[in-house]
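Kindly go through the following sequence and its backbone structure tokens. Advise at your convenience whether the structure tokens fit the sequence:

___
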Amino acid sequence: MNSKDLIKNLNLLPHPEGGYYKETYRSEVLTTIIDGKTRNTCTAIYYLLEGDDKSNFHRLQSDEMWFFHQGNTIEILTIQNNCIETYLLGNDIANGEISQLLIPANIWFAAKIKIKSGYSLVSCTVSPGFDFEDFELARRNELSLEFPHLIEIIEQFTNNQ
């Protein structure tokens, strides 16, 4: 199966951060978060990148777990402790790849296929559950001001805004 087949068969839609997604689970149980807002306790999606697609820098107000399913290795970049941390999400565990990764709440992160070809299919779970109100897509100018020493990476993983 190729990426076009997966997009069609899984009913994936374009995601605002890049790539394609489909929500597959939203718990009925609600959790109270900051300011008395409520969120579903957990949500899950399929997420697919193909070719030179990328997930631009963004952050969530909840923890997010990524689980690798198939395709090519994904590079996930996070900004932590004023530095870029890179993780390889894939099946080649003997060579340092991992099959799941936790992105803690409020951490800037981005992703791309390591070799910019083919596709990669993952699942992501968010707890407390995902809500677009808790999603922040990075603005290049603001992120560059906060991390001027990371400007080359920031330019690769943000839209010119």
